[in-house]
Structures are given as C-alpha cells and as structure tokens.
C-alpha cells in the first residue's frame, strides 16, 4: 500500500513500514508466516520452542534471512522450565536475528548476551513493577501483555496498562492483546503504545500450518468463547471453549494443584505439565482429533475467513487510516 506508513518509535527502530509484530505463537508461528509479514511491511517472531533442536532453529533463522529482507525475532522462554534455553540463546546470538522477545523469567542474561551481538531485546511484562525491572536491566522495549491477550494473558486491561507504562517508563511500549483490526491498532497507539504484537487473527491465515479445523474454529467462535485454563502449562492460558474443553474443565485437579505448590517438586511438575500440555496442543493443531484444545485470544472475533497474511495486514493499515 503506497504512502501508508505508520511511523512510531518501533517502526523507526526496526525500519519497518507498520509497527506490527506478528506475535510468536507456540506451534502456530512458522517461517512462511514471518516471511509474509516482512514482505507486507511488518515484522514477526517465532518461538524457539517451535523447534525440537537448536539445529532446526538455526536452519529456520537462515531460511527467513534468505527469503525476506527485513527484521524478525525469536521468542525465548528464559525461566527454568526451558531446559534448552542456553543453547537456544547461543544459536540466536550466533545467527544475529534482529530482536529477541523474552517470556516467563528474568531476561538479564539474555539482554547481556544479545547486546554483545547487536541484538535488541523486548521483554514481556504484565505489570509496571516488572516493566521497570527489565528497563533497569537494559531492555530495548517492553511488550505489555494485557488481559485481552491470547495465550498467557495478563491481569490488567489495555486501557490501564499502556498509559501506566508509558508514563513511568522511558523505553518504547508495545501492546500485546486486544488489537484485532486497524481501528483497535489506532486506539492502542493513542493510548501510548509504539506498536502492537498481534497473534490470534493470523492463526486462520493461508500461511499458517495448523489444520483446517483449528482455522475454522477461529472463524466460527468469537471473543465470548475464550476461556482460561491452567491445565496446559500450569500457568493460566486462553483457549477456545470447545465441547471438549467444557467436558474436561479448565482447572487443575487437587493433585495437580498440590504438586504445583510443593517447593521441591514444583519445578519438575511445571515442566511436566508444560510438556504434556504442549503435546496435547500439538495433536489438536496438526492432526484430526476430538481433543480440540486450541489456543486463541478474544480478537478471533475479527476473523471471518482464511486469508493471506498480506491481506490481513493491508486491512489493518486501511482501517487505521480510515480514522484519520
């Protein structure tokens, strides 16, 4: 789209036309999606956890670099549940991606190592306290995960969180959650965000590798069908309320809760819960199964059909400029 740039601190930092990050989505994000986002004038990130080995991660980074000329990132879980964290960080630094998005832990080591290689670090936060902490550690931007986000959502609304972080932090604030169209993108920027990390509306894209049932669910269900479950990773996570989810419930049973609180067993149980939950998600996302556990956020309300990523981003930009 000609003369349609949306200039913010994020778009200037990464030299992109639009301050949109195609959010890293476990199992969903792939190289084809990121390449399409870059070519459409945005950027995108892939979870390192989407690759079974660091060699696969390395090859994915090289594929994106070979097929698209523009910035992209890798999402890195930096807490103890990620047993391959150090190996993943080493590969990311060696391959020199443009930025890392950190989740679920202290980003100190990641920031220190990434900056040695000229890589920017954006940190997921859900509160002002943690935002100020990562800023003090040298983060280049904050990703403000609000309660409208898909996956591991926060507890504060976008209308409260963004202005609070904007007022009290000096580095750019990127909003994550609650933005499913161009009108909402403009509102987020008005609140003080310098860009938006957007995921759920891209699940039903042509480039997404998930099965057609998952994509169709994003079309058929809406924001009122999104519920929180603690069964997948031990941390509350948003899923579509399918009949299967209604059947199994969304809370951990008494034994799971007990193990999750035991100081000696907590780390290992969380890791086990995460691995078990992710395997369940993988089966639902890529194979025919009645066990439909599909992660998504409330912005699937905006999904009406399966479309190319460029068409989705173009619509965001068109709607954004309609409100001028």
Automatic annotation (TrEMBL):
<dbReference type="Pfam" id="PF03060">
    <property type="entry name" value="NMO"/>
</dbReference>
<dbReference type="InterPro" id="IPR004136">
    <property type="entry name" value="NMO"/>
</dbReference>
<keyword id="KW-0503">Monooxygenase</keyword>
<keyword id="KW-0288">FMN</keyword>
<protein>
    <submittedName>
        <fullName>Nitronate monooxygenase</fullName>
    </submittedName>
</protein>
<keyword id="KW-0560">Oxidoreductase</keyword>
<keyword id="KW-0285">Flavoprotein</keyword>
<dbReference type="InterPro" id="IPR013785">
    <property type="entry name" value="Aldolase_TIM"/>
</dbReference>
<dbReference type="GO" id="GO:0018580">
    <property type="term" value="F:nitronate monooxygenase activity"/>
</dbReference>
<comment type="similarity">
    <text>Belongs to the nitronate monooxygenase family. NMO class I subfamily.</text>
</comment>
